[in-house]
Hints:
The chain starts with 9 loop residues before the first helix and ends with a helix. The chain is globular and about 55 Å long. It is mainly α. The protein contains six helices and no strands.
Amino acid sequence: xxxxxxxxxxxxxxxxxxxxxxxxxxxxxxxxxxxxxxxxxxxxxxxxxxxxxxxxxxxxxxxxxxxxxxxxxxxxxxxxxxxxxxxxxxxxxxxxxxxxxxxxxxxxxxxxxxxxxxxxxxxxxxxxxxxxxxxxxxxxxxxxxxxxxxxxxxxxxxxxxxxxxxxx
Length: 168
């Protein structure tokens, strides 16, 4: 009979995802540490990397990583946490809300800044299209994806702002 089959191993998938989430945070911290070491040992190279048209595009991957960490916090800390009826840490709902708005504002500012750098400092006209040029705007575009994850668990008075900002 089909009813005699065991349920799918969702708990196992949850733990695999949680492990990957923590591995992602660890890798993010290692790479941020390497970036800080570059700042300490080669400050001129570090500063110029923000103004180099092609190298500055890799700053977008920093914001992509932050969106994944924010989405993982929402998923594993609130939505599918140990207790599915209510989050185990009620303060986490407020923290994710604040972090969402910080991410939305800074990723939009970063996208504008990166495209401005690309146009202002490029020696070639028209500005050459590089595949990595998409990374500059992708973090701002992901604001909508993060907003759709965050909005479902926010109190009613916050939902409209999150949804509208994610769709804008």
